[in-house]
Amino acid sequence: MRYVRRFSRTERLLHWANALGFFTLLGSGLILYLPSLAVVVGRRPLVKDVHFWSGIGWVVMLGVIALAGDRRGILRTARELDGFDRDDARWLLGRRPAPQGRFNAGQKLNAALTAAYTLLFFVSGMLLWLGERDTRFRFASTVVLHDGLMYAAVILLIGHLYLAVIHPATRHALRGITLGTVDEEWAGRHHAKWKPE
Amino acid sequence: MSESTRTPAPGGTTLRVGRGVFLATVAGGLTSLLWGRSVWSRVSSAISPVESLIPLVPTGGWRIYTVSGSLPGFDPTTWRLQLAGAVDRPVALDYRELLALPKTEQVSTFHCVTGWTVHNVRWGGVRIKDVLARVTPHPEAHALRFVSAEHPYDDYLTLDQASLSDVMLAYEMDGKPLSRAHGAPLRLVIPDMYGYKNVKWLNRIELVPREARGYWEQLGYDQDAWVGRSNGYGT
């Protein structure tokens, strides 16, 4: 079996830093959100601090990795994720053949939504924090946005985990995001237009 | 490879869809700060018939806010409601004596200052006047201090506010004894004011000459927490 490099070290670090931040925030956030967990755990002020500082740490960590890592590579990847061609449209409509690049159209959409959710989580989270301290930052809908994002992000995450861990045809991709390389033959089937270096 | 020698992509023209999805989602999210709550309240009233059978939202609309390390426990044998301050003789009611007072029930809406609301909460409990009837207040007493077992939480109401017709001390919620999360065994309910005035785990009421600043007021929240007319809303 021959392996080809799909993800750089910077890309993999960004992915796992994002995953770590997300799960820490989801866990601490659910303790704050769900009455049953809130009662079992208690310690709300501590959990609030953990949640707040995980949010700050998450964004700082992503920024540091992006700046200290392969910046040009990340910009190239962003351009790849941004562009959709006719095959991507066919792929999304379920038409085949629809040869895909290094990212398929679903992965591109997942990336765009995840990036948007991250920004919105951060903004609404900061507004919740500031609003507790100053009425000028208080909007009646901030908590609705923050909760709604949680539901949207968890739905996206469930789909992502299913494809990455369970679905037999696609779960080989997990190797790419952990070790960096994937089976050349698998890549040819799933990402026909991608020319590995 | 230079621009001129690049061959056209086999998939045809590339459109910048990714940034479009990103920007549209961000724009939708940010504008929802203006419309999110009214849409959500319409959705939640539309699903409320289903919601009563199958809980779709796992919280039942509530979230449990506390300010200390753990939630106070409730032991019916040792619990007391102290009535103290500017009164002739302080009194301590035990749980049985509390339940023996004239019972009242009401359905009212609970608003949190952070933006969430729970409609049609069924409360059972006692009116404050029926509790205060057990003591003889001094003439200079014009306000009440409500003290929570969750140290250092407390808050104040004037006697006028406390005698609004739908203010009560609740020991039942939705037909069941008040749960620990909601302030067992006794909490203050004042539907016209935001939740932070509705002191949970109540174990002491003091008659005082005038209001002082309670726990959240010391952190900058309004003394009179009228729903829709305080804390930066509707002003």
Describe what you observe in this structure.
The complex is a heterodimer of chains A (197) and B (235). Chain A has 197 residues and is mainly alpha-helical. Chain A has a single domain (3-190), classed as Up-down Bundle (Fumarate Reductase Cytochrome B subunit), CATH 1.20.950.20. Chain A contains 9 helices and 3 strands. A two-stranded antiparallel sheet of chain A has the order 1-3. Chain A is elongated, with a radius of gyration of 19 Å. The two termini of chain A are 17 Å apart. Chain B is α+β, with helices and mostly antiparallel strands. Chain B folds into 2 domains: 15-58, no CATH class; 80-219, Oxidoreductase, molybdopterin-binding domain (Sulfite Oxidase, Chain A, domain 2, Alpha-Beta Complex), CATH 3.90.420. Chain B has 4 helices and 11 strands. Chain B has helices spanning 17-51, 95-100, 128-132, 159-162; strands at 15-16, 80-85, 91-94, 104-111, 117-126, 143-148, 154-158, 168-173, 176-177, 187-189, 202-208. Chain B has a 5-stranded mixed beta sheet with strand order 3-2-11-6-7. In chain B, strands 4, 5, 8, 9 and 10 form a 5-stranded antiparallel beta sheet that branches. The N and C termini of chain B lie far apart (62 Å). Mean pLDDT of chain B is 91; it is low at 1-8. The interface between A and B is large, with 51 and 49 residues.
